[in-house]
């Protein structure tokens, strides 16, 4: 992989050029003492040294609410598909979120390709940045998601006075050539990148005491563990964990009509297995009607089901769920470590 | 990689279908017959389902109730239980609905060929099973014995009464019926569907059981099957879940790691018993 | 034929009806499909022939009970409009004090001319078909419910807590800002409007079907509230629930 250097003073012009170019640029900005991805109006808003964002950048590829079809009502209804996609640059995406997007790529392109996601994805450029200030609940190193080798067009690493830029695609290279002042990276600078990444690893506070490949097996043994009931007692079923998760991609589908009652749309919106009615059916039954089974299902998706179906991790260790959970039960690391203890 | 993967068409766009016949079955149940407006066959297998759209109301998964041997149209038998099914029940002939599918795996009809088959239907479990029964009857020589055990809660809640009576009269169908609670007029068997078991004599070496009914029914029927010596691989069941997207994405229908809309809704008991959430 | 709608108010601030009137453009469009035959706050003439009744306010006087029953008899569909009608709302704060004392505090010497009973939601008197929650109601939700009823559809009101919409709105959690919030047990549907505007959730939409009140209590205590503080928070809109238990 080719590597370049952008001096720090040249970063602002690069970002400004991107903002003024044809695509919308989305990047992490400060929000009430935290960070959130949002449209960049000017470079100054961009915070590349953030810990994590409130919501994952998947929201720009798989929006919280998205129209799927439009229809006209009446005797002879007419229906047409709706696919909205525009050029987009996601700037400053952390490796774990890149890994999560790689999972979504597989999930939405396997078996029945989803045109709504894939069209957006095709038009998106991902410019990553290494996470050097991990949030206290993150455990990316345990999952191999602290750095990424694929899934980006460009990947930045802050090495002090400059950024090392790894080029991941020709699209990324073109952007760099067109909009940035760069030079070749020296061996010393590449070594510096390694050392920054190494130093960052030491800043993670949470560790998973089991390798991710062993999780499906561990979970196979843990179905009847008392942990599920014990821990889920506190669950508020508030959905915070599933909304902030970068790897959750479940959704609900509903119809809405305009006030003239003549036309309408069908849209999907984020939904998740921790919400009470997720597995409820029209006849009145609920196949996961208790907190325990919902809590267990989420953990099995994160550690086993997604891995077995798509060959990708169902959890990237970003720690957002643990940060968002008031009941302090959402961290997959805590659950997996506990089950590992129990299995000894 | 992604650019190669972007499909040409939306998997969420329904085909339009015209409602051409409505037939009441019971108090909350009707049969609706549809024809695709583009003139094509739906091309389903018994045991598959469609996502039915009433535009403006929503989409709901409905199992196919007609046999694919019936050409030119298809039938959905529907109980009025939610927004979409209620709106469907209020439609008139000539109305247009949306159809996506058929989805799911369907009953393994090829495996059933040459075998004896005992069908166990509980309540509206008969809806998808009717597709299989009529398929077998249309290809009668390809299958062995056809035994149908049908249970309803009350005599008023018997589904497809005319067809039950037709099947009853056939020499090549062994139909046994029961109701959970009888009334003054009911002279038939009373008791849950498993109580019919003692009246059935089978050759466990060459029989498949195909079971569809309310969730509570499965465990009891499986126990009866075991008593009769039917192995797990030849106990087949169709499971109800909330199939919302029909295409293995939305997550609502998941049983453990399995998407019912993709790998199901039809499973062997050998598969089901590995799924802790299944029954 | 156009559906006939009617609006009625019992004890409340009439703010929810005012919200409906604030939907000016949408209301005009809606009038293509409905006749509003009774709406005291908007028109003088009225008739007693209607199919859908929106009822605002809680019941706080004996004389309101037969009026409400009459509405129920006439209407095919009764929709409770706003926190007072849905939950009893802030009016129920008086239920924690003897009624005589309430009368004395409010009317002083004139207390003998008035009657008052413990405040209650309209569902404690008549069956209610649907609820438009909130103090005040949310415009979009009111229109969503109305459209659903016109289409013959059961309106889908969220049965998950405000947290879902709050997270979707991109808000920093109220608890992370050192404050407390009833969002984790309160029914969503408001798009977390209060939190998005820098306040916390007061629970005006009432609890979800199965709120985890024990867990919420523990969380509030961990964030510095006493049991009494917590009760006071809940009572602002949900006092009726506490008493009816």
The averaged pLDDT of chain B comes out at 94
Morphology call of chain B: globular
- The CATH topology of the largest domain in chain C is Rossmann fold
Give me the side-by-side strand order of the main sheet of chain C. 2-1-3-4-5
Helix content of chain C: 25-40%
CATH topology name of the largest domain in chain B: Rossmann fold
Can you describe this structure?
The complex is a heterotrimer of chains A (344), B (279) and C (245). Chain A is of the alpha+beta class. Chain A has two domains: 3-201, no CATH class; 212-343, no CATH class. Chain A has helices at 8-20, 95-109, 115-122, 140-143, 170-179, 187-201, 215-221, 227-232, 240-243, 291-310, 320-324, 332-343; strands at residues 3-7, 24-31, 34-39, 65-72, 78-81, 88-93, 124-129, 154-158, 162-167, 183-184, 251-257, 263-270. Chain A has an eight-stranded mixed β-sheet with strand order 3-2-6-7-8-9-1-10. Chain A has a four-stranded antiparallel β-sheet with strand order 5-4-12-11, with no helix packed on it. In chain A, strand 7 (124-129), helix 4 (140-143) and strand 8 (154-158) form a beta-alpha-beta unit. Chain B has helices at 2-5, 83-89, 109-112, 126-138, 161-169, 217-227, 260-263, 269-272, and strands at residues 15-26, 29-36, 49-54, 58-63, 74-79, 96-103, 116-122, 146-152, 174-179, 189-190, 207-212, 235-238, 254-255, 258-259, 266-268. Chain B folds into two domains: 2-103, Translation factors (Elongation Factor Tu (Ef-tu), domain 3); 109-238, 3-Layer(aba) Sandwich (Rossmann fold). By secondary structure, chain B is α/β, with parallel strands linked by helices. Chain C is 37% helix and 11% strand. The termini of chain C are far apart. Chain C folds into two domains: 3-150, NADH:ubiquinone oxidoreductase-like, 20kDa subunit (Rossmann fold), CATH 3.40.50; 162-244, no CATH class. Chain C is an alpha/beta fold. The mean pLDDT of chain C is 92. In chain C, strands 2-1-3-4-5 form a five-stranded parallel β-sheet. Chain C is built from ten helices and five strands, in the order E-H-H-E-E-H-E-H-H-E-H-H-H-H-H. The chains are: A alpha+beta (344), B alpha/beta (279), C alpha/beta (245). Chains B and C meet through helix 2 of B and loops of C.
């Amino acid at each position: 992989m080719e590597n370049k250097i952008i001096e720090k003073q040249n970063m602002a012009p690069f970002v400004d050029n991107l903002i003024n170019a044809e695509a919308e640029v989305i990047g992490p900005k400060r929000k009430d003492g935290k960070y959130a991805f949002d449209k960049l109006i000017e470079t100054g808003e961009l915070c590349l040294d953030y810990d994590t964002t409130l919501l994952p950048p998947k929201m720009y590829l798989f929006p919280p609410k998205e129209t799927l079809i439009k229809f006209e009502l009446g005797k002879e209804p007419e229906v047409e598909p709706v696919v909205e996609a525009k050029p987009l640059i996601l700037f400053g995406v952390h490796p774990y979120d890149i890994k999560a997007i790689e999972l979504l790529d597989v999930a939405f392109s396997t078996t029945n390709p989803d045109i709504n996601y894939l069209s957006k994805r095709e038009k998106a450029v991902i410019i990553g940045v290494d996470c050097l200030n991990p949030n206290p609940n993150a455990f990316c190193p345990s999952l191999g998601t602290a750095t990424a080798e694929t899934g980006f067009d460009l990947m930045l690493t802050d090495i002090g006075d400059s950024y090392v830029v790894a080029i991941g695609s020709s699209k990324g290279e073109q952007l760099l050539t067109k909009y940035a002042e760069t030079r070749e990276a020296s061996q010393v600078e590449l070594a510096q990148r390694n050392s920054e990444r190494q130093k960052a690893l030491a800043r993670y506070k949470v560790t998973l005491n089991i390798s991710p490949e062993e999780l499906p097996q561990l979970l196979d043994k843990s179905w009847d563990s008392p942990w599920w009931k014990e821990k889920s007692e506190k669950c508020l079923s508030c959905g915070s964990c599933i909304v902030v998760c970068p790897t959750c991609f479940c959704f609900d589908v509903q119809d809405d009509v305009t006030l003239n009652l003549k036309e309408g749309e069908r849209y999907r919106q984020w939904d998740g297995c921790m919400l009470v009615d997720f597995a409820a059916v029209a006849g009145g039954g609920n196949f996961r009607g208790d907190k325990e089974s919902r809590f267990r299902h989420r953990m099995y998706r994160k550690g086993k089901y997604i891995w077995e179906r798509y060959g990708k991790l169902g959890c990237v260790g970003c720690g957002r769920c643990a940060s968002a959970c008031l009941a302090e039960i959402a961290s997959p690391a805590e659950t997996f470590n506990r089950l590992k203890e129990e299995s000894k | 990689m992604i650019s190669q993967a972007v499909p040409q068409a939306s998997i969420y766009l329904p085909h339009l279908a015209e409602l051409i016949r409505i037939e009441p079955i019971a108090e909350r149940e009707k049969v609706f017959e549809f024809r695709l407006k583009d003139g094509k066959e739906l091309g389903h297998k018994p045991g598959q389902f469609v996502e039915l759209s009433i535009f403006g109301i929503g989409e709901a998964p409905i199992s196919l109730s007609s046999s694919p041997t019936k050409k030119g149209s298809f039938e959905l038998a529907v109980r009025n239980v939610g927004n979409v099914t209620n709106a469907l029940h209020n439609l008139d002939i000539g109305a247009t609905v949306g159809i996506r599918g058929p989805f799911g795996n369907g009953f393994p009809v090829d495996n059933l060929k040459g075998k004896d088959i005992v069908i166990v239907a509980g309540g509206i479990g008969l809806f998808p099973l009717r597709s299989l029964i009529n398929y077998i009857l249309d290809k009668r020589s390809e299958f062995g014995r056809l035994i149908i055990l049908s249970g309803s809660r009350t005599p008023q809640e018997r589904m497809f009464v005319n067809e039950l009576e037709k099947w009853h009269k056939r020499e090549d169908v062994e139909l046994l019926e029961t109701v959970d609670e009888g009334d003054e007029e009911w002279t038939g068997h009373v008791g849950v569907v498993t109580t019919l078991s003692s009246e059935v004599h089978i050759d466990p070496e060459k029989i498949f059981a195909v079971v569809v009914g309310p969730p509570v029914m499965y465990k009891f029927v499986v126990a009866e099957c075991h008593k009769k010596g039917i192995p797990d691989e030849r106990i087949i069941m169709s499971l109800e879940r909330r199939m919302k997207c029909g295409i293995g994405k939305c997550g609502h229908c998941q049983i453990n790691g399995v998407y019912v809309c993709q790998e199901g809704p039809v499973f062997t008991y050998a598969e089901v018993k590995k799924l802790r959430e299944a029954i | 034929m156009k559906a006939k709608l009617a609006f009625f108010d019992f004890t409340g601030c009439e703010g929810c009806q005012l919200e409906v009137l604030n939907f000016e453009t949408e209301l005009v469009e809606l009038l293509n499909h409905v006749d509003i035959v009774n709406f005291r706050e908007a028109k003088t003439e009225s008739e007693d022939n209607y199919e859908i009744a929106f009822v605002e306010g809680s019941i706080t006087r004996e004389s309101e009970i037969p009026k409400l029953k009459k509405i129920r008899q006439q209407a095919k569909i009764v929709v409770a409009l706003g926190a007072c009608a849905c939950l009893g709302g802030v009016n129920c704060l008086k239920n924690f004090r003897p009624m005589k004392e309430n009368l004395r505090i409010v009317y002083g010497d004139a207390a003998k001319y008035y009657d008052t009973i413990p405040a209650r939601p309209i569902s404690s008197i008549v069956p209610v078909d649907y609820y438009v929650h909130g103090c005040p109601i949310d415009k979009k939700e009111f229109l969503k419910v109305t459209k659903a009823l016109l289409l013959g559809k059961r309106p889908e009101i969220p049965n998950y807590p405000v947290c879902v919409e709050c997270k979707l709105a991109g808000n920093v959690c109220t608890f992370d800002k050192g404050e407390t919030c009833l969002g984790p047990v309160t029914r969503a549907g408001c798009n977390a409007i209060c939190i998005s505007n820098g306040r916390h959730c007061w629970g005006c939409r009432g609890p979800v079907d199965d709120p985890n009140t024990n867990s919420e209590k523990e969380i509030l205590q961990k964030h510095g509230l006493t049991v009494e503080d917590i009760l006071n928070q809940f009572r602002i809109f949900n006092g009726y629930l506490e008493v009816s238990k």
